[in-house]
């Protein structure tokens, strides 16, 4: 084995930022993709109308096989070099597709959710480990009950274990919400980038404020400059 010493300071610039954003209906989860550098969308939903004016390229995902083919294209094709950011809209819908596929294959109901969770873990890991690409996973918002019975907002996935496990795969987990500027009183969409007793969140980079602008390119630059 040949030992190669590398330095953590270049991790984000080499591998890109991997993030998970969630929010309620109509809060601009999909539209946020247009603010990312050179994006392409893997769309498992019929909700791209908000990107019509931006003319963002997309690949339609109807099932898990489509997603596997899109991943192979993204990692192996020369064409994908034209894109810096891959958005998955939405990982909640992809999880529903994975659960439906396992329902058809798995005859023993006791094995259904473990098989589905294993499939989703593989999907999350495959995209997380994709080099030289920013990844933006979109999730629907739900209410999660913690071990201490507290209830907070978080990303939505079928089953009990995946909502807890999924955030560990990402550098950043943020909630898309309406934020009121204390100075002006103006309400605007913002990214809540840390967790508290009301919502799930994470900033592994340590470079972000609690509230960041509704702009993925700005977020990525801030993280990569740190």
Summarize the structure.
This protein is of the alpha/beta class.
- What number of domains? 1
Beta-strand residue fraction: 15-25%
Fraction of helical residues: 25-40%
Kindly report how far apart the N and C termini lie: 32 Å
- Please, how many helices? 6
Low-confidence stretches: none
The radius of gyration is 18 Å
Taken from the alpha-carbon principal axes, the silhouette is: globular
Return the CATH architecture. 3-Layer(aba) Sandwich
Biggest beta-sheet profile:
10 strands, mixed
DSSP E strands, number: 10
Highest-level CATH class: Alpha Beta
Write the CATH fold name.
Answer: Rossmann fold
What is the element string, with H for helices and E for strands? Answer: HEEEHEHHEEHEEEEH
Give the rounded overall mean pLDDT: 91
Keywords:
Rossmann fold, 6 helices, 226 residues, ten-stranded mixed beta sheet, alpha/beta
Structure notes:
The structure is a single chain. Strands 1, 2, 3, 4, 5, 6, 7, 8, 9 and 10 form a ten-stranded mixed sheet that branches. This protein has 226 residues and is of the alpha/beta class. The mean pLDDT is 91. The protein has one domain: Rossmann fold (3-Layer(aba) Sandwich). It is globular, with a radius of gyration of 18 Å.
């Amino acid at each position: 084995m040949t030992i190669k010493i590398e330095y953590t300071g270049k991790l984000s610039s080499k591998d890109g930022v991997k993030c998970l954003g969630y929010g309620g209906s109509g809060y601009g989860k999909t539209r946020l993709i247009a603010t990312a550098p050179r994006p392409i969308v893997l769309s498992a939903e019929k909700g791209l109308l908000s990107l019509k004016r931006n003319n963002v390229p997309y690949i339609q995902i109807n099932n898990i096989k489509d997603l596997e083919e899109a991943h192979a294209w993204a990692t192996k094709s020369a064409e994908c070099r034209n894109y810096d950011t891959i958005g998955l809209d939405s990982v909640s819908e992809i999880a529903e597709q994975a659960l439906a596929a396992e329902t058809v294959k798995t005859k023993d109901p006791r094995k259904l959710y473990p098989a589905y969770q294993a499939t989703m873990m593989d999907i999350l890991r495959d995209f997380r480990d994709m080099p030289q690409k920013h990844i933006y996973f979109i999730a629907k918002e739900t209410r999660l009950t913690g071990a201490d019975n507290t209830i907070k907002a978080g990303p939505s996935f079928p089953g009990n274990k995946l909502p807890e496990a999924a955030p560990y795969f990402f550098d950043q987990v943020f909630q898309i919400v309406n934020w009121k500027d204390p100075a002006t009183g103006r309400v605007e969409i913002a990214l809540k980038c840390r967790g508290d007793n009301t919502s799930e969140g994470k900033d592994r980079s340590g470079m972000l404020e609690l509230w960041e602008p509704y702009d993925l390119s700005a977020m990525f630059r801030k993280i990569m400059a740190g």
